[in-house]
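Fold this sequence, please.
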Amino acid sequence: MNAQSMLEQLLKSAMSMLDPKPSAASVPGAPAPRDAGLGQFGAGAAAGGALGLLMGSKRGRRLGGKALKYGSVAALGLVAYTAYSRWQSQQAQQAVAGSVPAAPPPPRTVNLLPAPEVDQHSRAILQAMIAAAKADGHLDDRERGLVEAELIRSQAGDDERRWLESELRRPLDPAEVARAAVTPELAAEMYLASLLVADETSFMERAYLDELARQLRLPEGLKVELERQTLAA
């Protein structure tokens, strides 16, 4: 199973729900996305489409609207890169007067990683998005049935079906989700992806997002910057 292709297809499925002619995202001042190979869907495309169907079925969800500014793994990473870089810059400006802090290395977000690491990040981002879809407590049998029917219709492979079914049925646990964040940049990407799915005006979902940020050990300034980037989408 290729997590990267599943995530690509999920984002594109969400886009197509609202806009038949989506435009690519761009963030001034950040390095261009590395799109080579990212648009090539493997067997994970069917599973990504099924996830898009689930996200679109959630009451009050507007994943598609937000995803119009994202649309690909590279674009999502680019937004995380921008938020992380701005946070780093703010930290440098707040350094003690008279000191000359060493320039931090540029963030290694998913748009800048080699292929094996892209897939690792994509899997963690997918896990975060599925968990966020469950944060309202209403992932019921009907919605699971939608996903399963779509997987059967599109002849998804056994690996994709087993993985998705496992993630959909897993009890919601922000601490468990956060364990996949092996780098600070990945933690930022996972929180950003969760913001795309969750309804931050819902008490339950806002509480989930706050606990996830705590478990991801996101600095408050970075959390605020990621939220600002999402609201601007």
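The radius of gyration is 17 Å. Residues 3-232 form one domain.
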